[in-house]
Amino acid sequence: MYIVYNMFLWLAAVLVTPYFLFRIFFAGKYRRSYIQKLGGRQTQKLEGLKEGPRVWIHAVSVGEVTAAAPIVASLKRKRPEAQIIFSTATETGQDMADKFVKDAAAIIYFPLDIPAVVLKMIKMVRPDVFVPVETEIWPNFLKICKIRGAKTVMVNGRVSPRSYRRYRLTNFLWKRVLRHLDFAGMISTVDYERLRDIGMDETKMEVSGNAKYDGLASMVSPLLQEEMARRFNVQGDERFFVAGSTHPGEDEIVISVYKKLAERYPDFRLMIVPRHIERTGDIITLLHQSGLNDVITLSAINRGAKRHAERAMVVDVIGELFKVYSLASVVYCGGSLVPKGGQNILEAAAWGKMIFYGPSMEDFSSEKALLEEAGCGITVRNENELLQGILRMLENPEEMKNRGERGKSVVLANIGASARYADLISRYF
Protein backbone atom coordinates (compact mmCIF):
# COMPACT_ATOMS: atom_id res chain seq x y z
CA MET A 1 0.00 0.00 0.00
CA TYR A 2 2.84 2.38 0.82
CA ILE A 3 4.53 1.63 -2.51
CA VAL A 4 1.32 2.50 -4.34
CA TYR A 5 0.86 5.66 -2.23
CA ASN A 6 4.41 6.86 -2.92
CA MET A 7 4.11 6.10 -6.63
CA PHE A 8 0.98 8.23 -6.64
CA LEU A 9 2.84 11.02 -4.81
CA TRP A 10 5.60 11.09 -7.42
CA LEU A 11 3.09 11.06 -10.26
CA ALA A 12 1.20 13.93 -8.65
CA ALA A 13 4.48 15.82 -8.15
CA VAL A 14 5.31 15.53 -11.85
CA LEU A 15 1.86 16.80 -12.83
CA VAL A 16 1.57 19.73 -10.40
CA THR A 17 5.17 20.95 -10.16
CA PRO A 18 4.87 23.24 -13.23
CA TYR A 19 1.79 24.87 -11.68
CA PHE A 20 3.54 25.48 -8.35
CA LEU A 21 6.66 26.82 -10.07
CA PHE A 22 4.48 29.26 -11.96
CA ARG A 23 2.80 30.35 -8.73
CA ILE A 24 6.16 30.76 -6.98
CA PHE A 25 7.90 32.81 -9.66
CA PHE A 26 5.02 34.79 -11.15
CA ALA A 27 2.37 35.07 -8.42
CA GLY A 28 4.66 35.14 -5.38
CA LYS A 29 2.87 32.25 -3.68
CA TYR A 30 4.83 29.76 -1.56
CA ARG A 31 8.11 31.72 -1.86
CA ARG A 32 8.62 31.79 1.89
CA SER A 33 7.82 28.14 2.44
CA TYR A 34 8.72 25.84 -0.44
CA ILE A 35 12.35 25.30 0.59
CA GLN A 36 11.35 24.67 4.22
CA LYS A 37 8.74 22.14 3.12
CA LEU A 38 11.57 20.24 1.47
CA GLY A 39 13.53 20.24 4.74
CA GLY A 40 15.75 23.26 4.14
CA ARG A 41 16.32 26.40 6.20
CA GLN A 42 14.90 24.81 9.36
CA THR A 43 18.07 24.10 11.35
CA GLN A 44 18.46 27.66 12.65
CA LYS A 45 14.91 27.70 13.99
CA LEU A 46 15.60 24.56 16.02
CA GLU A 47 18.97 25.60 17.44
CA GLY A 48 17.46 27.28 20.51
CA LEU A 49 15.73 24.16 21.82
CA LYS A 50 16.60 23.29 25.41
CA GLU A 51 16.73 19.99 27.24
CA GLY A 52 13.41 18.38 27.98
CA PRO A 53 10.74 16.29 26.24
CA ARG A 54 9.97 17.48 22.72
CA VAL A 55 6.37 17.80 21.56
CA TRP A 56 5.79 18.58 17.88
CA ILE A 57 2.33 20.11 17.37
CA HIS A 58 1.13 20.58 13.78
CA ALA A 59 -1.71 22.88 12.65
CA VAL A 60 -2.27 23.21 8.90
CA SER A 61 -3.43 26.81 8.58
CA VAL A 62 -5.27 29.68 10.26
CA GLY A 63 -8.30 27.73 11.49
CA GLU A 64 -6.25 24.95 13.02
CA VAL A 65 -3.88 27.45 14.66
CA THR A 66 -6.91 28.96 16.43
CA ALA A 67 -7.64 25.55 17.95
CA ALA A 68 -4.00 24.72 18.66
CA ALA A 69 -2.99 27.93 20.44
CA PRO A 70 -4.93 27.27 23.69
CA ILE A 71 -3.77 23.63 23.65
CA VAL A 72 -0.16 24.79 23.50
CA ALA A 73 -0.77 27.24 26.36
CA SER A 74 -2.49 24.58 28.49
CA LEU A 75 0.23 22.03 27.81
CA LYS A 76 2.98 24.49 28.74
CA ARG A 77 1.21 25.33 32.01
CA LYS A 78 0.83 21.65 32.83
CA ARG A 79 4.30 20.58 31.69
CA PRO A 80 6.59 23.64 31.63
CA GLU A 81 9.62 21.47 30.89
CA ALA A 82 8.20 20.50 27.48
CA GLN A 83 9.92 21.92 24.42
CA ILE A 84 7.08 22.61 21.98
CA ILE A 85 7.87 22.68 18.28
CA PHE A 86 4.96 24.11 16.31
CA SER A 87 4.48 23.65 12.56
CA THR A 88 2.06 24.88 9.91
CA ALA A 89 1.64 23.96 6.25
CA THR A 90 0.73 27.42 4.96
CA GLU A 91 2.37 30.83 5.08
CA THR A 92 -0.80 32.42 6.48
CA GLY A 93 -0.85 29.77 9.20
CA GLN A 94 2.79 30.58 9.97
CA ASP A 95 1.96 34.28 10.34
CA MET A 96 -0.94 33.39 12.64
CA ALA A 97 1.26 31.13 14.74
CA ASP A 98 3.89 33.85 15.12
CA LYS A 99 1.20 36.13 16.56
CA PHE A 100 -0.72 33.77 18.82
CA VAL A 101 1.41 30.73 19.74
CA LYS A 102 3.68 32.35 22.29
CA ASP A 103 4.72 29.22 24.19
CA ALA A 104 6.37 27.42 21.27
CA ALA A 105 10.14 27.03 21.45
CA ALA A 106 10.30 26.92 17.63
CA ILE A 107 7.86 27.53 14.77
CA ILE A 108 8.62 25.68 11.53
CA TYR A 109 6.98 24.50 8.31
CA PHE A 110 5.62 20.99 8.03
CA PRO A 111 7.46 18.89 5.43
CA LEU A 112 5.96 17.40 2.30
CA ASP A 113 5.10 13.72 2.84
CA ILE A 114 8.14 12.49 0.91
CA PRO A 115 9.98 9.77 2.89
CA ALA A 116 13.48 11.28 2.61
CA VAL A 117 12.22 14.76 3.54
CA VAL A 118 10.13 13.45 6.44
CA LEU A 119 13.03 11.40 7.80
CA LYS A 120 15.35 14.41 7.60
CA MET A 121 12.89 16.60 9.54
CA ILE A 122 12.14 14.00 12.20
CA LYS A 123 15.87 13.50 12.77
CA MET A 124 16.27 17.27 13.16
CA VAL A 125 13.32 17.77 15.53
CA ARG A 126 13.63 14.46 17.42
CA PRO A 127 10.07 14.57 18.81
CA ASP A 128 8.96 12.41 21.69
CA VAL A 129 5.36 13.05 20.68
CA PHE A 130 3.85 14.26 17.41
CA VAL A 131 0.45 15.96 17.74
CA PRO A 132 -1.58 16.67 14.59
CA VAL A 133 -4.45 19.13 15.16
CA GLU A 134 -7.75 18.18 13.51
CA THR A 135 -7.41 15.42 10.89
CA GLU A 136 -3.91 15.50 9.45
CA ILE A 137 -3.19 11.94 8.35
CA TRP A 138 0.07 11.70 6.37
CA PRO A 139 1.01 8.05 5.77
CA ASN A 140 4.78 8.41 5.42
CA PHE A 141 5.07 10.84 8.32
CA LEU A 142 3.10 8.65 10.74
CA LYS A 143 4.97 5.52 9.68
CA ILE A 144 8.39 7.13 10.15
CA CYS A 145 7.32 8.51 13.55
CA LYS A 146 6.49 4.95 14.55
CA ILE A 147 9.83 3.63 13.28
CA ARG A 148 11.74 6.40 15.10
CA GLY A 149 9.87 5.77 18.38
CA ALA A 150 7.80 8.96 18.49
CA LYS A 151 4.26 8.66 19.83
CA THR A 152 1.47 10.20 17.73
CA VAL A 153 -1.64 11.73 19.30
CA MET A 154 -4.34 13.50 17.30
CA VAL A 155 -6.20 16.33 19.07
CA ASN A 156 -9.32 18.28 18.15
CA GLY A 157 -9.97 15.54 15.61
CA ARG A 158 -12.53 16.33 12.95
CA VAL A 159 -13.67 14.36 9.88
CA SER A 160 -15.83 16.47 7.57
CA PRO A 161 -18.50 14.80 5.41
CA ARG A 162 -16.46 15.37 2.26
CA SER A 163 -13.28 13.98 3.83
CA TYR A 164 -15.25 11.05 5.22
CA ARG A 165 -16.49 10.11 1.74
CA ARG A 166 -12.95 10.27 0.32
CA TYR A 167 -11.47 8.25 3.17
CA ARG A 168 -14.18 5.59 2.89
CA LEU A 169 -13.38 5.09 -0.80
CA THR A 170 -9.76 4.29 0.07
CA ASN A 171 -10.09 2.89 3.58
CA PHE A 172 -7.99 -0.13 2.58
CA LEU A 173 -5.06 2.32 2.87
CA TRP A 174 -6.21 4.32 5.88
CA LYS A 175 -6.86 1.27 8.05
CA ARG A 176 -3.15 0.49 7.79
CA VAL A 177 -2.07 4.10 8.26
CA LEU A 178 -4.22 4.60 11.36
CA ARG A 179 -2.45 1.69 13.09
CA HIS A 180 0.47 4.09 13.49
CA LEU A 181 -1.67 6.60 15.41
CA ASP A 182 -1.41 5.97 19.15
CA PHE A 183 -4.53 7.89 20.19
CA ALA A 184 -7.13 10.34 18.85
CA GLY A 185 -9.12 12.93 20.79
CA MET A 186 -12.15 13.89 18.71
CA ILE A 187 -14.34 16.99 18.69
CA SER A 188 -17.70 15.19 18.68
CA THR A 189 -19.36 11.80 18.67
CA VAL A 190 -19.99 12.14 14.93
CA ASP A 191 -16.27 12.69 14.27
CA TYR A 192 -15.45 9.76 16.58
CA GLU A 193 -17.77 7.46 14.62
CA ARG A 194 -16.43 8.59 11.25
CA LEU A 195 -12.79 7.98 12.19
CA ARG A 196 -13.76 4.60 13.64
CA ASP A 197 -15.51 3.70 10.36
CA ILE A 198 -12.42 4.68 8.39
CA GLY A 199 -10.39 2.19 10.42
CA MET A 200 -9.27 3.66 13.77
CA ASP A 201 -9.35 1.30 16.75
CA GLU A 202 -12.12 2.66 18.99
CA THR A 203 -10.21 1.65 22.11
CA LYS A 204 -7.66 4.33 21.15
CA MET A 205 -10.17 7.18 20.85
CA GLU A 206 -12.20 9.54 23.02
CA VAL A 207 -14.45 12.58 22.58
CA SER A 208 -12.83 15.64 24.20
CA GLY A 209 -14.59 18.63 22.64
CA ASN A 210 -13.57 21.56 20.45
CA ALA A 211 -10.54 23.61 21.53
CA LYS A 212 -11.57 26.41 19.17
CA TYR A 213 -14.07 27.53 21.82
CA ASP A 214 -11.18 28.14 24.19
CA GLY A 215 -9.15 30.01 21.61
CA LEU A 216 -11.96 32.29 20.53
CA ALA A 217 -13.13 33.03 24.06
CA SER A 218 -9.61 34.11 25.03
CA MET A 219 -9.25 36.37 21.98
CA VAL A 220 -12.42 38.45 22.48
CA SER A 221 -11.39 41.84 23.84
CA PRO A 222 -12.81 45.39 23.93
CA LEU A 223 -9.31 46.62 23.07
CA LEU A 224 -9.34 44.52 19.90
CA GLN A 225 -12.72 45.96 18.94
CA GLU A 226 -11.45 49.49 19.56
CA GLU A 227 -8.39 48.80 17.41
CA MET A 228 -10.60 47.72 14.48
CA ALA A 229 -12.86 50.74 14.91
CA ARG A 230 -9.80 53.00 14.66
CA ARG A 231 -8.42 51.21 11.61
CA PHE A 232 -11.71 51.57 9.73
CA ASN A 233 -12.33 55.08 11.11
CA VAL A 234 -15.79 54.07 12.31
CA GLN A 235 -18.19 56.94 12.90
CA GLY A 236 -20.59 56.89 15.83
CA ASP A 237 -23.78 56.18 13.88
CA GLU A 238 -22.40 53.53 11.51
CA ARG A 239 -23.50 49.90 11.57
CA PHE A 240 -21.93 47.05 9.64
CA PHE A 241 -23.22 44.08 7.69
CA VAL A 242 -20.23 41.69 7.63
CA ALA A 243 -20.13 38.86 5.09
CA GLY A 244 -17.34 36.50 6.12
CA SER A 245 -15.53 33.82 4.09
CA THR A 246 -17.59 34.36 0.95
CA HIS A 247 -17.22 32.20 -2.16
CA PRO A 248 -18.09 32.89 -5.83
CA GLY A 249 -21.86 33.09 -6.20
CA GLU A 250 -22.36 34.57 -2.74
CA ASP A 251 -20.89 38.04 -3.22
CA GLU A 252 -23.63 39.00 -5.67
CA ILE A 253 -26.27 37.94 -3.14
CA VAL A 254 -24.57 39.80 -0.30
CA ILE A 255 -24.25 43.01 -2.35
CA SER A 256 -27.88 42.86 -3.45
CA VAL A 257 -29.06 42.29 0.13
CA TYR A 258 -26.91 45.16 1.36
CA LYS A 259 -28.29 47.61 -1.20
CA LYS A 260 -31.88 46.83 -0.16
CA LEU A 261 -30.89 46.95 3.50
CA ALA A 262 -29.26 50.36 3.05
CA GLU A 263 -32.42 51.76 1.46
CA ARG A 264 -34.17 51.26 4.77
CA TYR A 265 -31.16 51.80 7.05
CA PRO A 266 -28.77 54.32 5.42
CA ASP A 267 -26.35 54.07 8.36
CA PHE A 268 -25.40 50.52 7.35
CA ARG A 269 -22.07 49.76 5.70
CA LEU A 270 -20.89 46.58 3.99
CA MET A 271 -17.76 44.55 4.78
CA ILE A 272 -16.95 41.59 2.53
CA VAL A 273 -14.23 39.17 3.64
CA PRO A 274 -13.60 36.72 0.78
CA ARG A 275 -12.49 33.20 1.60
CA HIS A 276 -9.69 33.63 -0.94
CA ILE A 277 -8.19 37.12 -1.12
CA GLU A 278 -7.10 36.70 -4.74
CA ARG A 279 -10.76 37.26 -5.60
CA THR A 280 -10.60 40.85 -4.30
CA GLY A 281 -10.51 42.37 -7.80
CA ASP A 282 -13.59 40.42 -8.88
CA ILE A 283 -15.49 41.57 -5.80
CA ILE A 284 -14.57 45.21 -6.36
CA THR A 285 -15.81 44.86 -9.95
CA LEU A 286 -19.13 43.46 -8.67
CA LEU A 287 -19.45 46.37 -6.22
CA HIS A 288 -18.83 48.92 -8.98
CA GLN A 289 -21.31 47.19 -11.29
CA SER A 290 -23.93 47.44 -8.56
CA GLY A 291 -23.37 51.19 -8.19
CA LEU A 292 -21.19 51.00 -5.07
CA ASN A 293 -18.19 52.95 -6.35
CA ASP A 294 -17.01 54.11 -2.93
CA VAL A 295 -14.92 51.07 -2.00
CA ILE A 296 -11.77 50.74 0.10
CA THR A 297 -9.67 47.69 0.89
CA LEU A 298 -8.00 46.81 4.17
CA SER A 299 -4.65 46.44 2.40
CA ALA A 300 -4.96 50.08 1.27
CA ILE A 301 -5.73 51.12 4.85
CA ASN A 302 -2.70 49.18 6.06
CA ARG A 303 -0.58 51.09 3.54
CA GLY A 304 -1.72 54.41 5.00
CA ALA A 305 -5.00 55.23 3.23
CA LYS A 306 -7.74 56.54 5.49
CA ARG A 307 -11.33 55.43 5.22
CA HIS A 308 -13.74 58.35 5.06
CA ALA A 309 -17.34 57.79 3.94
CA GLU A 310 -16.87 54.61 1.89
CA ARG A 311 -19.90 52.38 2.19
CA ALA A 312 -18.17 49.19 1.05
CA MET A 313 -14.99 47.62 2.42
CA VAL A 314 -13.20 44.52 1.16
CA VAL A 315 -10.99 42.82 3.74
CA ASP A 316 -8.21 41.50 1.52
CA VAL A 317 -5.77 40.62 4.30
CA ILE A 318 -5.48 37.10 5.73
CA GLY A 319 -6.17 36.53 9.43
CA GLU A 320 -8.41 39.57 10.02
CA LEU A 321 -11.88 38.01 9.87
CA PHE A 322 -12.22 37.29 13.60
CA LYS A 323 -11.34 40.89 14.44
CA VAL A 324 -13.65 42.29 11.75
CA TYR A 325 -16.59 40.40 13.27
CA SER A 326 -16.21 42.62 16.35
CA LEU A 327 -17.65 45.54 14.33
CA ALA A 328 -20.65 43.65 12.94
CA SER A 329 -24.25 44.40 13.72
CA VAL A 330 -25.27 41.36 11.71
CA VAL A 331 -23.25 38.57 10.05
CA TYR A 332 -23.58 36.33 7.04
CA CYS A 333 -21.15 33.39 7.11
CA GLY A 334 -20.19 32.21 3.63
CA GLY A 335 -19.52 28.91 1.94
CA SER A 336 -23.10 28.02 2.81
CA LEU A 337 -25.42 29.42 0.11
CA VAL A 338 -23.13 27.58 -2.29
CA PRO A 339 -22.23 23.90 -1.70
CA LYS A 340 -18.93 24.39 0.13
CA GLY A 341 -19.80 22.93 3.53
CA GLY A 342 -19.87 26.26 5.39
CA GLN A 343 -17.25 28.14 7.39
CA ASN A 344 -16.53 28.64 11.08
CA ILE A 345 -19.55 30.33 12.70
CA LEU A 346 -18.03 30.26 16.18
CA GLU A 347 -15.85 33.31 15.46
CA ALA A 348 -18.86 35.60 15.12
CA ALA A 349 -20.71 33.87 17.96
CA ALA A 350 -17.80 34.58 20.33
CA TRP A 351 -18.48 38.31 19.80
CA GLY A 352 -22.21 37.87 20.54
CA LYS A 353 -23.38 38.46 16.96
CA MET A 354 -26.46 37.24 15.12
CA ILE A 355 -25.36 34.92 12.33
CA PHE A 356 -27.09 33.95 9.10
CA TYR A 357 -25.88 31.15 6.82
CA GLY A 358 -27.14 28.97 4.01
CA PRO A 359 -28.13 25.28 4.10
CA SER A 360 -24.66 23.95 3.21
CA MET A 361 -23.15 23.70 6.70
CA GLU A 362 -22.05 20.07 6.61
CA ASP A 363 -18.53 20.81 7.86
CA PHE A 364 -19.87 22.67 10.90
CA SER A 365 -23.01 20.71 11.70
CA SER A 366 -22.39 20.42 15.44
CA GLU A 367 -21.64 24.15 15.78
CA LYS A 368 -24.74 24.94 13.75
CA ALA A 369 -26.91 22.78 16.02
CA LEU A 370 -25.57 24.47 19.17
CA LEU A 371 -26.05 28.01 17.87
CA GLU A 372 -29.49 27.35 16.45
CA GLU A 373 -30.57 25.91 19.78
CA ALA A 374 -29.40 29.17 21.38
CA GLY A 375 -31.24 31.17 18.71
CA CYS A 376 -28.27 33.13 17.42
CA GLY A 377 -27.79 31.08 14.24
CA ILE A 378 -30.38 31.17 11.44
CA THR A 379 -30.44 29.14 8.22
CA VAL A 380 -31.60 30.93 5.06
CA ARG A 381 -32.10 29.36 1.65
CA ASN A 382 -31.76 32.30 -0.69
CA GLU A 383 -31.28 36.05 -1.06
CA ASN A 384 -34.82 36.97 -0.07
CA GLU A 385 -34.73 34.89 3.13
CA LEU A 386 -31.41 36.47 4.07
CA LEU A 387 -32.79 39.98 3.59
CA GLN A 388 -36.05 39.29 5.40
CA GLY A 389 -34.25 37.56 8.28
CA ILE A 390 -31.94 40.53 8.78
CA LEU A 391 -34.81 43.02 8.61
CA ARG A 392 -36.81 41.06 11.18
CA MET A 393 -33.88 41.11 13.59
CA LEU A 394 -33.22 44.82 13.07
CA GLU A 395 -36.86 45.58 13.81
CA ASN A 396 -36.43 43.82 17.16
CA PRO A 397 -33.06 45.05 18.45
CA GLU A 398 -33.53 43.78 22.00
CA GLU A 399 -34.32 40.27 20.75
CA MET A 400 -31.32 40.39 18.42
CA LYS A 401 -29.06 41.43 21.28
CA ASN A 402 -30.39 38.67 23.55
CA ARG A 403 -29.93 36.04 20.86
CA GLY A 404 -26.36 37.16 20.24
CA GLU A 405 -25.57 37.01 23.94
CA ARG A 406 -26.97 33.48 24.12
CA GLY A 407 -24.63 32.50 21.30
CA LYS A 408 -21.70 34.00 23.17
CA SER A 409 -22.76 32.01 26.24
CA VAL A 410 -22.63 28.81 24.15
CA VAL A 411 -19.00 29.50 23.30
CA LEU A 412 -18.16 30.20 26.95
CA ALA A 413 -20.06 27.14 28.19
CA ASN A 414 -18.03 24.84 25.93
CA ILE A 415 -14.56 25.97 26.96
CA GLY A 416 -12.22 23.49 28.63
CA ALA A 417 -11.29 21.20 25.74
CA SER A 418 -7.74 22.55 25.52
CA ALA A 419 -7.00 21.42 29.09
CA ARG A 420 -8.36 17.96 28.31
CA TYR A 421 -6.15 17.72 25.23
CA ALA A 422 -3.13 18.87 27.24
CA ASP A 423 -3.83 16.05 29.72
CA LEU A 424 -4.11 13.60 26.82
CA ILE A 425 -0.80 14.64 25.27
CA SER A 426 0.91 14.48 28.69
CA ARG A 427 0.15 10.78 28.95
CA TYR A 428 2.67 10.09 26.19
CA PHE A 429 5.85 11.73 27.51
Largest sheet data: 7 strands, parallel
User: Unreliable segments (pLDDT under 50, ≥5 consecutive)?
Assistant: none
Mean pLDDT: 94
Strand order of the largest sheet: 3-2-1-4-5-6-7
Tell me briefly what this model is:
The protein is α/β, with parallel strands linked by helices and 429 residues long. It contains 21 helices and 14 strands.
Describe the model:
This protein has 429 residues and is of the alpha/beta class. The chain is 50% helix and 15% strand. It has 21 helices and 14 strands. The strands form 2 sheets. The chain has a 7-stranded parallel beta sheet, sandwiched between helices. The chain has a 7-stranded parallel beta sheet with strand order 10-11-9-8-12-13-14. Strand 6, helix 10 and strand 7 form a beta-alpha-beta unit. Helix 4 packs across helix 21, helix 6 packs across helix 7 and helix 13 runs parallel beside helix 19. The longest helix is centred in the N-terminal third of the chain and has 26 residues. It is globular, with a radius of gyration of 22 Å. The model has no long low-confidence stretch (mean pLDDT 94).
